[in-house]
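Much of our argument rests on the idea that a fold can be written as discrete symbols. Part of our work consisted of pairing the sequence of a single chain with a tokenised description of its backbone. No coordinates are needed to read the tokens, only the vocabulary itself. The record that follows shows the chain in one-letter code together with its fold in token form.
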Amino acid sequence: MSRDTAELVRSLYEAFAQGDVPYVLGKFSPELVWNEAEGFVYADRNPYVGPQAVIEGVFLRLAMEWDGFSVTPEEIVASGDTAVALGRYRGTSKASGMPVDAQFAHVWKLADGKVVSYQQYTDTAQFRDAVAMARAAEV
């Protein structure tokens, strides 16, 4: 089971990197509960419940607000129906031009081959600073 869990999570990152959002959404449970890290720029709508909430509150905002945004897992460790991915976010804020290169840890929980919960942990300060720089430039 752990190997299947790790492979499913790995396939999500690969599909996301290729822009295959339908594949990703197809692996989300309708009852998915998704949480961004406390203090993260997209934690304002936590918890996101259901795939549509994740599309609107996270995926679309990332696409609209960041250039070259990537999510690169460097290691995935799984036990049973839980996987932890360790990796890096990279991208540049469209509004401020400030780049980020931040560590992340993602905790994925699956049931019946679908993602039922997701918890993000990351260096929220880099993202906060990129957004704050953009807001300061507007004033």
